[in-house]
Amino acid sequence: MAKSRYKDINYPTPNFDPKKTNLVEGVILHHTAEPTIVRSLGVLTNTHKKVGTHVVIDTDGTRYRMCSPTTVTFHAGRSYLNGKEGCNNFTIGIEFQGNTLNEPLTADQIKSAVEYLLPIMKKYKIKLSNVVTHEMVRKAYKKRHPKVKCSGKVDITQTEYKRFMKYLSKHLDSKKK
Ligand SMILES: [Zn+2]
Asked: How far apart (Å, rounded) are the C-alpha atoms in residues 17 and 101?
């Protein structure tokens, strides 16, 4: 296997559920909406906030790995995907440093995330249609529960999602050949 182009840093989060095992059926893409990586890492490891993710990807492509794919961490909240609610139990969370409403993802962020994802998607046989944005799984939840409070904020934008998916599907295909 080719050597990774991007740096991996172990940065464990205390915010996970030790009683559960992640089924790893999907991937949820997020942006941190924090101005700096230091702030993002702070939020995602803050025991008072109870939010986490599997990996945070900085603008230069550096990956901060917070827990293993089979860990259940708290990135999705009220959510619906693949016929099920509670996406934290069966999805991987990828947090991109920055806010895609203001700045697009960098090429390094996209490449680094795909490099991280390809072996995981292969190992757990994740369908491409189960790679979605946080906004998409929230909207799906809201559709099922119109009266329940659930944030509708953009996370990540559809434009950046499409860019990401184009790159991901191209590389999934090239792996098959
Ligand atoms: Zn999110």
From this structure: 31
Q: What mean pLDDT is predicted for residues 58-65?
A: 98
CA of 75 to the centre of ligand 1 (A): 6
Q: How far is the CA of 32 from the centre of ligand 1 (A)?
A: 7
The answer, yes or no, to whether residue 124 has pLDDT greater than 60, is: yes
Section 127-136 average pLDDT = 97
Distances, alpha carbon 62 to alpha carbons 68, 91, 142, 164, in Å: 17, 21, 34, 17
Q: Enumerate long-range contacts of 159-162, CB under 8 Å, 24 or more apart.
A: 159/100, 159/104, 160/100, 160/104, 160/105, 161/29, 161/132, 161/133, 161/136
The Å distance, Cα 66 to ligand 1 centre, comes to: 15
| Lowest mean pLDDT across 50-59, 145-154, 156-165 | 145-154
Task: Indicate whether 172 pLDDT > 90.
Answer: no
Give distance in angstroms: CA of 134 to centre of ligand 1. 5
Cα–Cα distance measured from residue 40 to residue 57, given in angstroms and rounded to the nearest whole number: 10
177 Cα–ligand 1 center, Å: 34
List, in order of start, the domains of the chain with CATH numbers.
8-172 (3.40.80.10)
